[in-house]
Amino acid sequence: MAVRPKDERLSSPSVPREEAIVNDVVDKIERARSLLTSGQEQKAAEILGEVVGATDDPDLLRQIHELAVEGHERAGGFQKVHWRELMIDSEARLEHPVA
Known about the structure:
By secondary structure, this protein is mostly helical. The chain has one domain: Alpha Horseshoe (Serine Threonine Protein Phosphatase 5, Tetratricopeptide repeat), CATH 1.25.40. The chain is built from 5 helices and no strands. The protein has helices at 6-9, 17-37, 41-51, 58-74, 79-95. Helix 2 runs antiparallel to helix 3 (41-51) and helix 4 (58-74) packs antiparallel against helix 5.
């Protein structure tokens, strides 16, 4: 079975839209994790900021929160604010899921 490129997964009729969105969120979380590990904190924070509102899945929100905590611990100065916002957003979505 051939693997479709990421951009095709979002528009493919064989992949339900909800599943494609989850796949995209998972891909972006992994990309952010990789960027954070390689010292590209700003780009990682931007990616996580894009996806925090795109999922209600508790496991994905916990992953986002864990990465935000890690980024906050590594950050200095003003960057801590952005990471703190991600922590707050992910905590709020975990505590009060959208119905």
